[in-house]
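Progress note, sequence design subtask.
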């Protein structure tokens, strides 16, 4: 079954308005509030045997009666006949929480313009010549994991040691030498909301750069949040998501151990025990688009909560060459002044 919401005044389809946090009728400009309880932040115990739900292959549009063929990659869509925004209602049984859009289309476009203007190494005419494409607001399905960890570790670090030696003439000379030293220990860590992407719409690297999302104000899933946006389906299962999360936790623990040492660590071994593991499924809001410059497309993504933009831009070779030449000239001038002094 696909869900839809109607305007009580004109019967037109309603969409979610990110700026007001209400449902909006584009025909008569009416706003409608709806129940938006906060998520109670209760996560389920980790279950790696979780099975994805199988959805019907077709759904009937409640507005016009059109039979809409189900696209397994997207769980919210528009009726191909009347354009009504639809959400597969049974999907909500699988979702723990949703971070609603706070950045609307106009604000997303403004964030893009500020971002592209801030790229100092981009070609000077980029902002003027770049042709930006259509902005698509979609919810990215994600896996969220919590865990307490106990890590036993050992490694090798380099320390500086003063060594005194007596010369053949009887003089004592003290030198500083690099010496290897073993170390070991145990540490306890607590991890909350380790997020991994639930499909391949964007990479985990891009998702990490888009952080942080508004996890403090997560809401209980409601279809209304999705009206007017695209909802991507899960294509990455919980096992793969969990493996990516434990890799992130392992990297984090390794970095914490290395940064806690006052010396250079050249080898490190860890053994991690996981306890109190929890799982949840979040929907995170993302605006995606691309711009074309000199016949090449450049994708970019915008955090639907904060407006943060992540993407790549072309590099001006001329600007880089001028910067290198300027750097060499300054270095040469400094050397010249030092030699004269």
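Output:
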């Amino acid at each position: 079954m696909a869900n839809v919401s109607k305007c009580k005044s004109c019967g037109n389809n309603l969409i979610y308005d990110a700026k007001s946090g209400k449902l909006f009728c584009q025909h008569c400009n009416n706003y409608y509030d709806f129940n938006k309880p906060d998520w109670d932040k209760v996560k389920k115990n980790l279950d790696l045997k979780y099975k994805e739900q199988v959805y019907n292959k077709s759904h009937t549009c409640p507005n016009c009666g059109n039979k809409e063929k189900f696209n397994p990659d997207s769980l919210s869509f528009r009726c191909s006949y009347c354009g009504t925004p639809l959400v597969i209602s049974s999907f909500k049984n699988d979702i723990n929480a949703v971070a609603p859009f706070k950045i609307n289309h106009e604000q997303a476009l403004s964030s893009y313009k500020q971002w592209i203007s801030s790229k100092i190494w981009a070609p000077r005419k980029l902002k003027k010549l770049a042709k930006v494409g259509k902005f698509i607001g979609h919810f990215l399905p994600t896996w969220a994991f919590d865990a307490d960890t106990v890590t036993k570790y050992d490694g090798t670090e380099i320390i500086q040691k003063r060594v005194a030696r007596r010369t053949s003439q009887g003089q004592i000379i003290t030198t500083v030498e690099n010496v290897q030293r073993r170390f070991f220990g145990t540490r306890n860590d607590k991890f909350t909301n380790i997020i991994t992407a639930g499909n391949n719409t964007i990479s985990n690297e891009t998702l990490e750069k888009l952080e942080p999302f508004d996890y403090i104000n997560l809401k209980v899933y409601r279809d209304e949040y999705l009206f007017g946006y695209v909802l991507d389906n899960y294509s990455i299962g919980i096992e793969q998501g969990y493996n990516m999360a434990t890799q992130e936790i392992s990297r984090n623990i390794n970095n914490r151990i290395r940064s806690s040492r006052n010396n250079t660590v050249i080898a490190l071994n860890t053994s991690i025990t996981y306890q109190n593991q929890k799982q949840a499924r979040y929907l995170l809001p993302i605006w995606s688009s691309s711009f074309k410059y000199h016949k090449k497309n450049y994708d970019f993504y915008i955090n639907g909560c904060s407006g943060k933009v992540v993407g790549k831009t072309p590099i001006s070779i001329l600007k880089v060459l001028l910067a290198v030449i300027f750097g060499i000239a300054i270095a040469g001038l400094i050397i010249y002044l030092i030699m004269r002094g």
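The chain has a mean pLDDT of 85. Work on this subtask will continue into the next period as scheduled.
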